């Protein structure tokens, strides 16, 4: 399958939902462009790494690994990159810099984001077929194993300082967008617009149905923006996803 045909349903739906959540969030909650970008990311950025990869491989077999990994890379580069660019632009606008300085600030912000840089480096290494030393793989594995627990610890510390009932409407809004609207849009695009093969469509819909990824909180914490509400949205969407993802899998599993 051509790469564009796989990416098109995922990111046409994702970008549409990002824009809709961004605009609705600003209108409903009166937030800044930067916070609106975090809300848009929260509605479209799934927990594809820690949950998505093992889940789809377990459900649909080893053939699901390639489309799942493409989503991991695409989310890390495109969706995180878009949110980072908007945040940097909003903060640059607040400093009143000229357009050239603003573009420089956006570019610098993208290059400073370790998630985006790591995704691009991983893609480049894969395409170049370069073989790395085993010792480097082992060291990277140690860092990778500690990344998830560290992010979850920081998320839990933030949750402890903010009652979940605060921002309940915003949390419900983001959870609805992520767990219901996102998979519906991706499913519609995959099945009825781009007519993906059954396995690839199943992977796309399953990945879209996953809860908000912890990297959205990491980005919020990095810029000291809206970290409390975002951490709550991650927790609540993860809790609710036990039911919603189970429902999606019960429908899609025969496809695999």
TrEMBL record:
Keywords, alphabetical: Cell membrane, Membrane, Transmembrane, Transmembrane helix, Transport
Membrane topology: Multi-pass membrane protein
Gene Ontology CC entries for this record: membrane
TM spans (from-to): 66-87, 99-124, 136-160, 172-193, 199-220, 232-253
Protein name: Auxin Efflux Carrier
Signal peptide: none
Subcellular location field: Membrane
One Pfam family named in its UniProt record: Mem_trans
InterPro entries, sorted: Mem_transp_PIN-like
Keyword Transmembrane (UniProt): yes
Protein's UniProt keywords contain Transport: yes
GO biological process, one term: transmembrane transport
């Amino acid at each position: 399958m051509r790469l564009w045909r796989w990416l098109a349903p995922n990111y046409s739906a994702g970008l549409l939902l990002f824009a809709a959540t961004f605009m609705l969030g600003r209108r409903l909650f009166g937030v800044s462009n930067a916070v609106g970008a975090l809300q848009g990311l929260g509605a479209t950025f799934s927990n594809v790494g820690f949950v998505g990869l093992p889940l789809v491989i377990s459900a649909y077999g080893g053939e699901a690994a390639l489309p799942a990994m493409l989503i991991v890379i695409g989310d890390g580069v495109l969706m995180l990159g878009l949110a980072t660019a908007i945040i940097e632009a909003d903060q640059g606008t607040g400093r009143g810099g000229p357009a050239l300085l603003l573009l420089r600030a956006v570019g610098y912000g993208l290059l400073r984001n370790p998630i985006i840089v790591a995704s691009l480096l991983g893609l480049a290494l894969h395409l170049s077929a370069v073989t790395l030393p085993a010792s480097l793989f082992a060291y990277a594995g140690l860092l990778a194993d500690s990344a998830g627990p560290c992010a979850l610890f920081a998320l839990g510390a933030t949750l402890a300082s903010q009652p979940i009932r605060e921002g309940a409407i915003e949390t419900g809004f983001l959870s609805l967008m992520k767990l219901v609207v996102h998979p519906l849009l991706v499913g519609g695009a995959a099945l009825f617009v781009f007519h993906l093969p059954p396995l690839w469509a199943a992977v796309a819909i399953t990945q879209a149905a996953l809860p908000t990824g912890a990297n959205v909180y990491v980005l919020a914490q990095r810029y000291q923006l809206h970290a409390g509400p975002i951490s709550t949205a991650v927790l609540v969407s993860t809790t609710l996803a036990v039911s919603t993802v189970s429902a999606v899998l019960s429908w899609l599993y025969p496809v695999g």
